[in-house]
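Students often ask why we bother predicting the structure of a whole assembly rather than each chain alone. The short answer is interfaces. A chain on its own may look different once its partners are present, and contacts between molecules only exist in the joint model. In this exercise we take two input lines together and write out one structure for the complete complex. Read the inputs first and try to guess which parts will touch.
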Amino acid sequence: MTQDPLVIFTPSGKRGRFPAGTPVLTAARQLGVDLDSVCGGRGICSKCQITPSYGEFPKHGVTVRDDALSEWNAVEARYDEKRGLAEGRRLGCQATLQHDVVIDVPPESQVHRQVVRKAASTRAMVMDPATKLYFIEVPEPDMDEPRGDLERLQEALAKDWGIGALDAPLPLLRKLQPTLRKGGWQVTVALHKDHRDSAHRLIDLWPGYHEGRLYGLAIDLGSTTIAAHLTDLRNGEVLASAGLMNPQIRFGEDLMSRVSYAMMNPGGDLEMTRAVREALNQLAGDLARDGGIEPEQIVEAVFVCNPVMHHLLLGIDPVELGQAPFALATSDVLTLGAADLDLTAANGAARVYILPCIAGHVGADAAAVALSEAPETSEDLALIVDVGTNAEILLGDRARVLACSSPTGPAFEGAQISSGQRAAPGAIERVEIDPVTKEPRFRVIGSDLWSDDPGFSEATATTGITGICGSGIIEAVAEMRLAGLMDASGLIGSAEQTGTRRAIPEGRTHAYLLHDGTADGGPRILVTQGDIRAIQLAKSALYAGARLLMDERGVDKVDRVVLAGAFGAHISPKHAMVLGMIPDAPLDKVTSAGNAAGTGARMALCSVEARARIEENVGRITKIETAIEPRFQEHFVNANAIPHATDPFPHLPDLPDVSFNTGGAAEGGGRRRRRRA
Amino acid sequence: MTQDPLVIFTPSGKRGRFPAGTPVLTAARQLGVDLDSVCGGRGICSKCQITPSYGEFPKHGVTVRDDALSEWNAVEARYDEKRGLAEGRRLGCQATLQHDVVIDVPPESQVHRQVVRKAASTRAMVMDPATKLYFIEVPEPDMDEPRGDLERLQEALAKDWGIGALDAPLPLLRKLQPTLRKGGWQVTVALHKDHRDSAHRLIDLWPGYHEGRLYGLAIDLGSTTIAAHLTDLRNGEVLASAGLMNPQIRFGEDLMSRVSYAMMNPGGDLEMTRAVREALNQLAGDLARDGGIEPEQIVEAVFVCNPVMHHLLLGIDPVELGQAPFALATSDVLTLGAADLDLTAANGAARVYILPCIAGHVGADAAAVALSEAPETSEDLALIVDVGTNAEILLGDRARVLACSSPTGPAFEGAQISSGQRAAPGAIERVEIDPVTKEPRFRVIGSDLWSDDPGFSEATATTGITGICGSGIIEAVAEMRLAGLMDASGLIGSAEQTGTRRAIPEGRTHAYLLHDGTADGGPRILVTQGDIRAIQLAKSALYAGARLLMDERGVDKVDRVVLAGAFGAHISPKHAMVLGMIPDAPLDKVTSAGNAAGTGARMALCSVEARARIEENVGRITKIETAIEPRFQEHFVNANAIPHATDPFPHLPDLPDVSFNTGGAAEGGGRRRRRRA
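Now the answer. The structure tokens for the assembled complex follow.
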């Protein structure tokens, strides 16, 4: 008696014997091999393509004959004719096992494949989305078995896909009967179920086999900017990204001023809720247009945001977040319908997932950074800083992860800066100042040339030079300190003190003239004493938060620093450390994670497993409340100077020993002397 | 060593030993004794009142000492002082076990008690509602454990009430924080969970202990009338009832004409959906006003309706219900939010339960009748007829239940009748005609007097005599046949043929003058030949449906007949049988169930268990489709005569052997001769 054919799947290595004539897809399913299929084996979707291998496989101990699989059949021939089947490929639902065979499942035929995104972040996305397409054939109605169309659809889903309970919103029930009849009782349904749901939910349906793609929005809802990525739910690719100023800025630039607005103005919280929801609709509409898709194809949205943005998005008055004990209305994950958030520029049945908040001041954005950067898996002690209007700070390794947030204010985003602007073409983003001549050179967003390169004027003619963005102001201030234009207390010296006419009087203080575009009708771009103070406040808050976590952990240095945030990618590690934004570390151990919160949002959008992981991890993160911690104030005050009054930065070169304080006693000079504490 | 005290609860008989000092409520819960509590044992709600018994109980084998329970405590004293505690009563959460004791749980302290309603139906309602109140104390927020208020609420519910997952709609999340703080971290929540839900759902919340009542609407959404009962979810009492004409009537009087309207007019189905939803809001608002409650206290609604009304309520085009195979979009139970149906005159978080449809022509109204009348528990074979614009017919016993519906049209509701009107004050509802003088006497709704009683004119002066309602026309037609004013074919005789001047010419036929109010400025109320034809069509359809079920069951008689429906209570069994509306049965075996569909709706509103029961039973009912069954036509034709051409009615007296057919051969005479088949 001959044995049943043996099938070995690669790369999984799963193997088993099946009766001759078993379709490859059936064998894969029974072995738990990850082989995709939308049509359930009907030869329609072509997602189950496989590559059989022939010949000797000593490693597997098999010889694969040329006739190991059934012959190419009519369905495969038709598919090849209409859409082309790559050389050596077969359809797993059509090819049947005849003899022992080794079968490779190519990456594009795996459901839970890792996809390397092409955009900024090269992070591999694991695809395991909550919303997927299923093609099914529904039995026709029968007067002797008078169940409804929905009930017969459910039975077909149970039989073909093992799907249990199904919730169907009324608007889709309205679509159900005409769709089934139009498709001749064949239908493609989009169903949603994440790890928290007990039932699948019908999201949309189309007659017959539907080729369309499903998309999700990964939204990083910041105090100052809202960034969103339109993401293909099949492969995680970002089809389009867009950003928008948060229109709530007109009610207050930072979180606490928005909370105050809500407290002082009855109904003010709802005004802010309306404003942000309108902006989200605009953003979703823009992205659909940019991506060339219909808004109805947007079937999911994932939000990450700080607790105040979180509550205002949800229509919850954030007043409790403005005072101790900073009680959240809800800290857990929320799953909602798009309609709950008035999100009309999406499928009416779209689902919304909002990451959990870690604490009253540590929000879903921090949770998203934790998901993206996974400090809980780090061998060495990592400090992860997500720089924004509010900084989210994580410190941890395999042993323990701590988190806090720190109210840096919007200076790092170019706001409250005299020539500040958001990062957009025309904004100065990189600055160098010659320590001898005190002359600057810079780059603006939109051109790779430095301002002293030939052709710079031509390259920037269309955008102009309009202002200075967050990364630009950090570099400018750090360079001013390195060039001796500013002393350790942050005072800008006069022309006499610094020896450059770029140091110009401004009221009772001085400013440094970075660029004068007035000859061409452009602006004068200055770094004023006020700008320096704003950056000092911001960087002190950021540093104090990090230092507080280090105290809690009982360390005075970290192994590595990860800069994250919308403009984290653009901050130069050297300049960040000159400013004292971050604790001392070897410069090659300061890396950028890009927009980690946005990446975390995309991960949660693409993977149900990622959602489960962050929900579990968030419960294990130790939260530190900066607002009521006396040591925070202490660290904050000590971090005001450049470099700090107390903390050493062995990895930095010495900074010029200058002092421009004209009144009273000179405040100590260089770093060596200052280290008095 | 002495044993722990023994406690015996009556009426349940449950018993157990508990350590001395155990509160009675705790013992009851551990034994699974049905003892109510809203406050969870905090001595606030007083729902857990019990009555201890003292002395010798040979039946239970115990002697109960006077000190079997702890002494009256301060909480009980305060409650007694403020609100009065009946003699012999204790609060189960305060009184603790000291020695062996027998404790009676009075009916009002039982959650799942049977309540005998005071209104029309004397049916006992089992109370087991899906929405209940819970009082809890929520831990205050703690910065070291920064979970949200909702999460701490959930933990308190889990701890005190064993409640698991909780869904909270956004508008209630908005209310949560101020409510908790206003109540000093004490809160009363209304939670909903029926047998199909995996989680409880937050419906409303109030600071501190909330005394308010929760209400539900039981709605019988008929083709012609919408009836609703505002029901107390604590005891099942109907606080107010109201009815309204279904405004969809302007789109078509019967079901098929509304389906046609939807087919002929794009968007016509949505017009009808809007119309009925507006009417429901009006009805809910009226009931809240009548009952003296706030609309927010309406937290549930249960709907029963036929399939076309069902689909139009849900916003689903009923077109498929107009043609074979009469496919429902969905046949299963639906649980929705009030907002899904635009039901704004209720709590925003109110839940809606819609009974399942049995088949494309046999709706949730038939399911409600089945729930109310429970034919599946009947020892003898019962025919249950719910008379309306569409008749729902059930035939069954313990062995098997069959169901169909029959398109009787609106004649039985007074529509399509020349002097017809809905049942309202001024409508003739009872008719007798003297077989000798051919003179009528009648009663009108709003007075108990007959028209030949002294004082009748005065009694009806305010309402007038305005028309004839459904039960009135049935009696009038049957009496006309009994008095020899009409022959077996339904022809009304002339004055010469009948010997009364009340038989007056009307066109080429005759009419019977029931009442002439013209002298007082009122209407002439006639029964015309057209009215007779309308009633003949309606009664033939009704009878043919019943006969079809009897054929299916293989019987030619039934043991008993139950008349249900909005006016089922008012139909006289004798007249119904004279007309041949129902099959022959002993007159004392023809009973009225009142508005059985409405009763079924109330049962589902009051009891989760009733919902589970009907869902299970509906799956077991055999559905018969009248529209495509050739025997239906045959029965319909044979049932046109009065009495029928074929079926015998041994329980009826002989009917006059008259014939008024003036053209062609006389159609046989009396009944004996007619029985030629």
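Check your guess against this: The longest helix of chain A spans residues 529-553.
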